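Hi support team,

I'm filing this because I wasn't sure whether my run with adenosine-5'-diphosphate finished correctly. The job status page said complete, but I'd like someone to confirm that the output block is well-formed before I use it downstream. Pasting the exact inputs I used:
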Amino acid sequence: MLTESKGIRLEHISKIYQDPKTGKDFKAVNDANLVIEPGSFVTLLGPSGCGKTTTLRMIAGFESPDEGEIYLGNEAINELTPNKRDTAMVFQSYALFPHYNVFDNVAYGLKLRKMDKDVIRKKVMDILDLVELSGMEGRMTNQLSGGQQQRVALARALVVEPSVLLFDEPLSNLDAKLRVSMRTEIRNIQQRVGITAVYVTHDQSEAMALSDQIIIMNKGVVTQIGTPQEIYYHPADEFVADFIGEANFLKGELVSKDGENGELDISGCRISVENAGSFTVGNTYTVVLRPESAVLADEGQLPCKVVMSCFMGSYQNYHVTVGDTLVKITDFNPKHKKIYRVGDMAYVKFDACDIHII
Ligand code: ADP
Ligand code: MG
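And here is everything the job wrote out:
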């Protein structure tokens, strides 16, 4: 495809809606600032109602922001109608035309543009080839599986050669297995075409698998933007840590620091940390410890008592208490390891680089 992919920039974007119950105004999107690089795959991730769809619809032009400016490439696009924006949307419900066959569904946008018949035919066939639906062009959409319908929807969006593809939970109507294979396919096609993609989901594993960058939203506010690794290993706050993967939260006082290295006192034990730079000695902070970053051992940093021990095949699942705090541990490949039982005293063991102050 010849499309030039473009970046997107949101500057101080807010959207005000009225709460239908109270009649009061609220900000469904609250002062969002984001930069989406050309050709990247970016996911808007957050719980239901956090403002993902509203953000996407403002980029598409179906809603207009009450504050701020949206740029596509270098162009401010707030005043442009959706069909002038060089974006194409793939919906959760596919929004295919049931009385059209696959070819006519995909050709629709090109016919609207009054393109030459032969050109339309070539473009449609090329795109159907890209989404691996060659030979299906004569089928009616109700003769297609959910996954095939999704591909038609994708082909229909791609065929008009937009600079940006927008997806609103496009896989939520598919069963779990198909969701996993379709997301890989969407990612492959996006990379082959080199198009910028903005993808809305509430599913963290989908976001992790697809994204160059994840934008976490909570209650209308963008709380963190980063690669899947940055978000997972360096969550900005408890909400992000809890939303992405599983997290243990421990409280401790920062008792000393030297540059980024610091020492925390957790229940009377000294714990080294490697991201203490911006925190203040003498204050109490929360630290995040991922369950798979810790193991149980006879020696380690934090003494604990085992309250649950469960063999899960690929890992041993422990719940232990450190003081009053419950800590979850997933100890992978336990076959040749010592297994602790409920009631055992042990230690939680981890590396300084695996705990993170927030
Ligand atoms: P998400 O896609 O993250 O689930 P939405 O962007 O759809 O969230 O909605 C954000 C908030 O705005 C929700 O509280 C929702 O109920 C509200 N909302 C969405 N659209 C409208 C509308 N047209 N009028 C009033 N409130 C709306
Ligand atoms: Mg939504």
